[in-house]
């Protein structure tokens, strides 16, 4: 599909809530600008733009998608907008659209958000037992991965995905599996989840996703690469105790 409107995706220089959109725009070869706001301890680059509503949208938050003259804010709204604007919604049946939306919501609430909170836990939750908290997050994540594995098998996700273009739900699914593996390392064995393992290692778009991550190494959250790497090492160490 040819997109006439200029596309700009603006987000911090981390993976966070926008990496799956980067995967999608790149995989579908939609011409776009991936504008990344530099991270620093004082968030100076963000402070410089945060009051400019034309840049950061109506809620002064990122990510923001500029689609021609339209400004689209909020991750879930960006997802819904792109599904319609790119024609993907029309390619799916009503039942399939519901499945994609449910998968998107589940990945955001049960994988992306808990992992983001965990990475910041030592700073954002004073006095918390990070090791106990991390073990709890991992246990809930493994349980949710079990549910996802069964559901995607029942939905025949791999078979149906092969019959259509790569879509946003595919991108978010791969991204959150990759993030979980990166965060928990050896403590999360993907081979225990047969369908998730196949999607991650064999799914359409995988080479593009891997290429983007490799070409621009970035932290998962706004902690920045060095600080986050140290935090993740500590989390894995505490889980092992």
The helix/strand class is alpha+beta
**Sequence of secondary-structure elements:** EHEHHEEHHHHHHHHH
Q: Helicity range of the residues? A: 55-70%
Number of helices: 12
Quick one: CATH class of the largest domain? Mainly Alpha
Number of E-state strands? 4
Give Rg in angstroms. 18 Å
Instruction: State the major sheet.
Output: 4 strands, mixed
Care to describe what's here?
The model has no long low-confidence stretch (mean pLDDT 97). This protein starts with 6 loop residues before the first strand and ends with a helix. The radius of gyration is 18 Å and the shape is globular. The chain has a four-stranded mixed sheet. The protein is α+β, with helices and mostly antiparallel strands and 241 residues long. Helix content is 61%, strand content 8%. It folds into two domains: 7-88, 3-Layer(aba) Sandwich (Glutaredoxin), CATH 3.40.30.10; 93-205 and 220-240, Up-down Bundle (Glutathione S-transferase Yfyf (Class Pi), Chain A, domain 2). It is built from twelve helices and four strands. The longest helix is centred in the middle third of the chain and has 31 residues, at 94-124. The protein has helices at 19-27, 44-49, 53-56, 75-85, 88-91, 94-124, 130-154, 157-161, 168-184, 194-202, 206-215, 225-240; strands at residues 7-12, 33-37, 64-67, 70-73.
